[in-house]
Amino acid sequence: MKILLHTCCGPCTIYPLKVLREQSIDVMGYYYRSNIHPYTECIQRENTLKTYAEEQEFKVILESGYHLEDFLRHMVFREKDRCQVCYYLRLSATAHIAKQGAFDYFSSTLLYSKYQQHELIQSIGNSIGQSLGVPFYYQDFRIGWKEGIQVSKSLNMYRQQYCGCIFSEKERYVK
What we know:
There is one protein chain. By secondary structure, the protein is of the alpha/beta class. The protein has one domain: 3-Layer(aba) Sandwich (Rossmann fold), CATH 3.40.50.620. About 50% of the residues lie in helices and about 10% in strands. The protein has helices at about 10-20, 40-55, 70-75, 80-100, 120-130, 145-155, 165-175; strands at about 1-5, 25-30, 60, 105-110. The longest helix is centred in the middle third of the chain and has 19 residues, at about 80-100. The N and C termini lie far apart (about 45 Å).
């Protein structure tokens, strides 16, 4: 079985990659970066992921360009539903590449985070998968939350303090 795994960053990739490989699943990553702000944060996360991917012999497709303006256009007047929109953008991009690459499934490292909305991610993933003919693979990776953190710290990985979008960055600093 081949899965294209949307990867948001290196630390969140650790546990899902381990578990999927233990299940003898052939995993390739896809780094969607247009939602990550500022650009320096995007590059820092990408570089951390690339370093980890090389160490793990994990192939990762990197989104080309940095389409922040397109991301923001999708968010205008939807700020309260921004996570839903963002999940859709990332999962849809992943599913399209999975279809082109003849993957059996697509999934996301978002399912590792205890801060993400799993039911919403699963619903959006299933809907996209059904419309494109590439099923969404749901697995709750939150059980490995602490393990992933410990490994990322032992590897001295860059660990971000917000999901990546401009809105979560604001929430991080403006109370």
